Amino acid sequence: AQSSSAGAARPQGERASRGMKAVLLIGNFSGSLRPLTLSQPLPLLRFCNRSLIFHQLQALKDAGISQVVICHPNKEVPADWTAAIEQLSGELGLKLVCSQETEPAGTAGALKHAEALVTDDGTNDAPFIVVNADVLCSYPLRDLLLAHLKHGREGTLLTTRSEEPSEYGVVVVDERTGGITHFVDRPETFVSDRINCGVYVFSPAIFERIRASSRVSMNELLPAMAKAEQLNSMLLSGYWVKLTSTRSYMGAVASHLEIARYLAPASLAESTADFTVTGNVMVHPSATIGKVTPNPTPNPNPN
């Protein structure tokens, strides 16, 4: 695996997550958010005054993660990518390691490609978090870790309820145990309203299930794990969005600002004597809002 790293690792958090690692999966740098990604790669797009990847890395750090392996293809790598990763590493205090796929490997294949980095060449058997780079949510990662450690299966998948489950592959769950029984790809009739959030906790045992030097997707790996009764689930109670279009991007902004009203109200603008704020609004620190003077009544006889 080709790799590069930035920053110094600093294990933190509770015993369940001390020294744990995470993987951020970047399928490609442009995604489907054109024209937004014409001038900026998807992970570095500005989102509520920060880059998208910053929000994901911050959530991982808050869960006690000290090192993140960023898997991405070696094609169309932005010229400023290395500098951006080094800046994020220093700002967040995370060790960031990039694993570049020389050939398309699929979502599960990308994990296999990074196996040595995740497991420290087989010496680290701690579970690890996996997050898809094209999703945003409220990230209950500590709860997901605890759920994974409690049931002891190879994987735990974060799910959410969808009003349009036929647009996704649905997850069929044993409601008594949380165990995933099977998946149904784009069902034509109602089977379940749960869908895959693209956020996981895995134990290193899953690497034995992924063929080396092959293109393998999560759509192959996860059903096999469910069939072997090695995949559990946890239901998300907060917001979730998959960034598939500019419309979904704008919807994610609204959801994020709504959550910020409760979790980080100081990050939102408040009304002053000069202007009135309506709704949830975030203002960049460099921006200045001037006082708007109403237009005076025009002089009917200017001459």
List keywords for this structure.
303 residues; alpha/beta; eight-stranded mixed β-sheet
Model description:
It is a single chain. This protein is of the alpha/beta class and 303 residues long. Helix content is 25%, strand content 23%. The strands form four sheets. An eight-stranded mixed β-sheet has the order 1-6-5-2-7-12-9-13, with helices on both faces. Strands 3-4 form a two-stranded antiparallel sheet. A hairpin with a 6-residue loop joins β10 and β11. The protein is globular. The chain starts with a strand and ends in a 40-residue tail after the last helix.
How much helicity do the residues have? 10-25%
Class of secondary structure makeup: alpha/beta
Query: SSE order, as H and E?
Result: EEEEHEHEHHEEHEEEEHEEH
Main pleated sheet: 8 strands, mixed
Query: What's the gyration radius in Å?
Result: 22 Å
Which stretches are poorly predicted, pLDDT < 50 over at least 5 residues?
Answer: 7-18
Please report which band the strand proportion falls in: under 5%, 5-15%, 15-25%, 25-35%, 35-45% or over 45%. 15-25%
Total number of beta strands: 14
Distance between the termini: 79 Å
Strand order of the largest sheet: 1-6-5-2-7-12-9-13
Average per-residue pLDDT, rounded, comes to: 83
| SS summary, helix count | 7
Can you tell me the overall shape?
globular
